[in-house]
Automatic annotation (TrEMBL):
Occurrences of domain PapC-like C-terminal (ranges): 777-842
Annotated protein name in UniProt: Fimbrial biogenesis outer membrane usher protein
Keyword Transport (UniProt): yes
Source taxon at top rank: Bacteria
Amino acid sequence: MTSYLSPCSSRTVGLPLCALVVAMASPSAFGKNQAGTVFNEQFLNIGGDQPSADLSVFSFGNRVLPGTYTVDTVLNDSNIGQNEVRFNKQADDAQDATPCLTPALLDDWGVKTSVFPALANSSPETCVDLGKVIAQATVSYDPGNQRLFLSIPQAALKRSARGAISPDRWDKGINAAMLDYQLSFSRYDGNNLRGNTVSPVQQNVFDNTSAPNKLERDTYFGGLRGGFNIDDWRFRHFSTYNRSLDGQGRWQAINTYLQRDIASIRGQLLIGDGNTPGNFFDSVQFRGVQVSSDDAMLPDSQQGYAPTIRGVAQTNARVEVRQNGYLIYSTYVAPGPFVLDDLYPTSSSGDLEVIITESDGRETRYAQAFSAVPTLLREGTWRYSATAGQYRSGYGSSRGKERPSLVQGTLARGLAQDFSIYGGTILADKYQSALSGVGKNLRSFGALSLDISHARTTDRDDQTFNGQSLRFLYAKTFEKTNTNFRVAGYRYSTSDYRTLQEAVQMQDMLDGRPFNNRRNELRFELAQSLGQWGTLHTSARQQSYWNSNSRDRLVQIGYSGSYQKLNFNLFYNHSTNLDAASNRQLMLTLSIPLGDTRASAQYMVMKDNNDQLVQQASVYGSALDDNRLTYNVTGDDSNQSGTSSSANMSYLSSIGRLDLGRSQGRGYGQTTVGMAGGVLVHGDGLTLSQPLGETIALAQAPKANDVGFEIRPGVRTDKSGDAVIPNLSPYRVNRLALLTGDLGDEVEVKNAALDVVPTRGAVVKAKFATSVGYRLMMTLTNKDGSPLPFGSKIENELGQEVGIVGPEGQAFVTGAGEKGKLRVVWGRNEKDQCTLAYQLPKEESSKPIRELNEQCG
């Protein structure tokens, strides 16, 4: 039987009356004194002759009654999810019910049940005393927040990385079909569109039109991503339609694939269209079969790279790891050698300070040098991929040489001593390549990876090109100056080296036309903190080519900071593409919030290399209760193209997103309308939604329509109580919480928050237990017409406590049906209770609280 909390719980209606009763207790009634609190019942007789019930039920404050509750479990200060836990009545009726911790539950929570005889020899559903079975283990329960706290020594827990979520908790979801869509329409008008972003070909359409004064052209775009889920399999298809300013429309199939996860190898199987990994070779599109590791399946602490920390504790010691002054890790270890290999990877590297504090207060400190680069893996970690299929390209070709068959495999392994090794090969028609490399944490000198690849390419005239490419990556943080080299790298390729993309392009070149393949590449990213003066960041990339003196170049330098409420940003951008003119921009942006509103004002001034000076002022912000409406109004002035203005709005509803925009300049205008949303077909019907994303949840709260969700702007339940929650994180705990203020006067929910752990691409069902009932203000009397005793408990036909009797027999009852029976209890004997049957009168207008006068027999 599922039982509800006491009426004194913060999650149950009827708090005013309950608070009135508890207020008569001394302050110690809210403490943890197991001796209980004695109420002076004579206070009830002040001001009149008021009968009272047996108030010993309140002797221990907020009572926990026997039953099964959904609780949030917290183990050693880490939330490990929600569980159904049974609470059993104790021999002493004055005590709260206590949680029944079974060997099965403890095993799920990571306890080494096999090494404790009292757990190993008991049946999985036997209740055990945790403190007696495991020394120094404790358990406590917070009934107000329904949280179960466990403290268990690390030695009694199974070894698992921080952030690990057992595959047993992964939810593959339900069978369903879905459609994600994006539709947009643009109308251009006027006779001067050169200020707009159109291509020269599109501009000629306007220049050569027969319309003498006004031009008008419409463009359309549609993106459709549909598919279905059956068991572990996910089928998806994505295609687009585009009609541009030249009036030509084109459908294009982007990809079609069948996918499922393989938990045993922490990987994904894909059949159809996909992309090869881009961590070693350049990523390419293919059509075929691929098996590859999925880093999202790893715990948070196992993704990316972080060093393995080793040390020795002399007692039960606390180990802290700090970086740049911040505590990033803390745990307790048993005496003897220990290994910490589950640090969370950090986006900025820097030396780690390890502090071992013994139980007697002694401290041992040392530094662990650490810098991270993309090609470093943790010790014992694998990263792999195997692909077989046909090369794909979105560019057409008359000869069809752009689709060679290919096989690609990559493998990487994290080794001891902070080494990582990796390698791979590509075998394709007229192209073969192999790569090998090594990564190393050089401790105080940073981190470095170095790899070399060899490629053999045969052109359509059977001429062979053999070449090599050398690449290194480096990262380092200088803590004293707060300087962070996120990554610095260099790559050099000989004249006959080709990547797979370059080899395919070369097959399609016209005779006599020079082919420009990459020669060298230099890139780096640098971030410099200036403390209260802001942050300076810069990134640069330059790539040169054989048979050409031109270069691709990108340099970006930014400085940002704030003064009181004023935010400022200075940005410089310089880009050059192969055989194209360079583009330089210098921009200053100032922004400030407008009072206590959710709006801000912004001023921007920009100068480019064509001596164009643009000044722009805008107001942007959000509106409505959950920020589901966003807007931006902008006006600008250019010394070359004159003045222009624009306004944009985006609205998120429960069935999709609507975008509207209008821009107007000298001789031209543009109006845009966009819609995006999703459709989910499932066993219980059809549900419309916002854009779905990859992984979603179907939330069901029966009979609770138009109810919102926390941190989900615009998402609300439909008439059936269903809602789609888009964009969940696969293999992670996603918390879905109803906005209980939207439930209305007649809907009750047992648990307003649920945790789900979906697999990639899943449609998981999150069902909230709701019930429809009325709120009643009842005046209850005995057979002789006297009010029922103050403090009497009121139970429904299921034995669930639904209210409590207050002064003069008044009681507030929740979750009541149109008719039913109630039992009122004010003592421990059979005579100290009575039952009553009620039926609500029909009313034309429903009131939030219905009033009834009933006699209890």
